[in-house]
Amino acid sequence: MSVTITAADINKLRQSTGAGMLDCRKALTESNGDFEAAIDWLRKQGQKVAAKRSDREAKEGVVIAKTTADNTAGIVVCVSCETDFVSKNAEFVAFAQSIADAAVANNVKSVDELNEVAINGSKVAELINDKLAAIGEKIALRVERVDAPYVASYIHGANRMGVLVGFSKNAAEAGRDVAMQIAAMNPLAVDESAVAPETIAREREIAIEQIKAEGKPAEMAEKIAVGKINRFLKDNTLMAQPFVKDNAKSVADYLKSVDAELKVTEFKRVAVG
């Protein structure tokens, strides 16, 4: 008795293995619809199915940061792979660019939404599986988004990193400079108020233990720890960091020099690896 093989069955096998559509149809037909047997059939045919790559990491890739035409939204898409040989391939870079373009054009807000977007008649999820099967490497998608009155984007180091920065108002002049600052200095948050309390508590505990290890009394350790925390916040919050183009001023000072009312609302920094 033959079993009807549905498009959903084929897609499920494709997503699990990365094999092509025709191969998946053939595998399911040969195995009479048995999913696990179909995977075995593909493997017996020499297919490097995705299941055999599940323990491998996609530490290379391409990062594309783009904004909408009106600069009120920005999306960073990272299409990761396993080797720099693939990530530097012009065809793979173009592949990542097409996905980022589709993400912006369709106003996506998550990886799940992006996977359902169609490019030339095929869903992104299907294109990813086709590419996985073609190059034999694990591929992963990451999507980050910023919405604000004005969003600036920046791509650093031959698509190795992408940055989005949201501003409270038009920041055509300052946008790129602040985005480059974030790329270079990797702040944890916009300012002290945006740093998670548990992060500050952890840094305080570490500081106190370091000071005690130096032989200083507990009451002194508490006071010295305050200074260490202040230094930590200066180094790791965007507004307090020295501005990379002029270390004599902070990023906050720089923004004030551009527009006293200009504020950074949020940012996203995505790097390969």
Can you put this structure into words, describing what you see?
The chain has 273 residues and is of the alpha+beta class. Helices cover 45% and strands 21% of the residues. Strand 6 (150-156) and strand 7 form a beta hairpin. Helix 2 crosses helix 3 (35-44). Mean pLDDT is 90; it is low at 51-55.
Fill in the keyword field for this structure:
single chain; 273 residues; alpha+beta; Helicase, Ruva Protein, domain 3; Tetrahydropterin Synthase, Chain A; GTP Cyclohydrolase I, Chain A, domain 1; 3 domains; three-stranded antiparallel sheet; 11 helices; elongated
In brief:
The chain is α+β, with helices and mostly antiparallel strands and 273 residues long.
Please specify the SSE layout and strand pairing.
Blueprint: H1 7-17, H2 21-30, H3 35-44, E1 60-67, E2 73-81, H4 84-87, H5 90-105, H6 111-116, E3 118-119, E4 122-123, H7 124-135, E5 140-147, E6 150-156, E7 161-167, H8 175-185, H9 197-213, H10 218-236, E8 242-243, E9 246-250, H11 251-258, E10 264-271
Antiparallel strand pairs: 1-2, 2-5, 3-4, 6-7, 7-10, 8-9
